[in-house]
Design brief:
Elements lengths: L25 E3 L2 E4 L3 H12 L4 E4 L15 E2 L6 H8 L1 H24 L7 E8 L3 H16 L5 E3 L12 E9 L2 H14 L3 E3 L4 E6 L4 E5 L3 E4 L1 E4 L15 E14 L7 E4 L5 E6 L7 E12 L7 H14 L6 E12 L5 E4 L7 E5 L5 H16 L7 H4 L9 H14 L19 E7 L2 E7 L5 E5 L10 E3 L4 E3 L6 E2 L5 E3 L13 H5 L1
Parallel strand pairs: 1-11, 2-3, 2-12, 3-8, 5-14, 12-19
Antiparallel strand pairs: 4-7, 5-7, 6-7, 9-10, 10-11, 13-16, 13-17, 14-15, 15-16, 18-19, 20-21, 21-22, 23-24, 24-25, 25-26
Amino acid sequence: MESLSNGSKSVWMTAALPQFPPLQEKLKTEVCVIGGGIAGLTAAYLLSREGKAVVLIDARKIGEGETARTTAHFFPPDNRYFEIEDAFGSDKARVVAESFQLATDLVESVVRKEKIDCEFERLNGYLFSLTLDGYADLDKEFDAARKAGVEVHKKARVSGLSFNTGSCLEFPNQAQFHPLKYLNGLISAFRRNGGEIYTQTRALDIKHHDHTLTVTTEGGAITAGAVIVATNTPFNDRVVMHTKQAGYRTYVLGMRVPKGSVPRILLWDNGDPYYYVRLTTPDEKSEHEILVVGGADHKVGQDEHPGHRYDEVEKWVRQHYPMAGSVDFKWSGQIMEPVDGVGYMGRNPMDDKNVYIITGDSGNGMTHCTAGAMLVTDLVMGRNNSWIDLYDPARTAIHGMSEFLKELGNTLAQYGDWVKAGDVDSPRKIPPGEGAVLRKGEKRIAIYRDGEGKLHPLSAACTHLGCVVSWNAVETSWDCPCHGSRFSVNGQVLHGPAAKPLEAIQLDEEAESL
């Protein structure tokens, strides 16, 4: 799969997905969905199944976003049930448990109804910890999960592994699948229902009229009665939602293991640092499986040379899975962490006329995005949904005030980059295949030198709220350390909330000769 980024490739990216043209006209429809990942395509499919006319657009190709970079677990919330209970109460913890279970059930039912070959399987999942702090939380999580109505069992250890996990919690009947094969099936079903898809079509703005909305794009426009923004983080809200969540990068390895040497389970480490583990099989004839292990998270744009994080994951794998062989895949992905531990799905807080958002997945992208699609489908159809209040994007983050202040302080500190020296004092010091920020007077210039030595200078000011971007050597991209926007070496937007590319600039002779 071709990508705007020259960075990592996941194990899922070998799957072929259909291509679609860009939008180059003006259309009218009932619902416009922005974003072609799990959230957007699930919402589009569900609404088309209800008889709604739906047009879906994506800024890139289908499957080039974060759905291709997930590890595709369906599992209990990454922010534990006892934390949700402490913050929101036991009734709301039950809502989370219900929404996660029904989301997983929906995916299974869609797979069966639409006959989607996507390797969906139910598996037991296990939460464990090899650190004392994480271990101490297991009893609290057991009690809170049971109170929330979740089936959970205490076990002395996870059986069948090459290392002793110690006491753990077993969550039966969780699930995993191949995310891009599932997208492929959703695409086919959505189109059979009359849905339209346009790619390489970036939404630039959403304008309100008396009873309609118009989504303006680079080559056309779509007028609709409702708009769903399913772009991992919303582009249509400049500030409010981006003070309630923060973007983090997470790192994943796909390593060969002999077939049958590792049990087919889901595994989640509750320690710090933590890791998450699953298996996938390249094909039925393969004599090996791929052990998919992720972790080593950090805030977007705050590690210019994160390659060491792959090393940390690999070291952990080889310590605990001695049968692991070659590293066949390595990739990173982006998750949005809500400050109070619960995601956002529903009406956009800055709009009162049928604009909906799905964001704040907190590492539960497959489950959360499916639940979000279910909720916004009910809202568009005018139905009540008992999840609305908990997941309301307009809620005040009073339960996560300390985390809110911590993230806000971190974000504000990044603007200090405007008064700091650049990464280099001369473009000549940038080696081929690398990037660096150069200071020239009051300006900051993001410069990438390609393999042939050519310089690609851009304004280093993120087009969202002006933070200085940072080089990401793993993904060969420019990342914003404030709100998680990411750009290609040519300035194209890879991840929002930015909607506009970095400005291309011309280096003068003085700058080039430095």
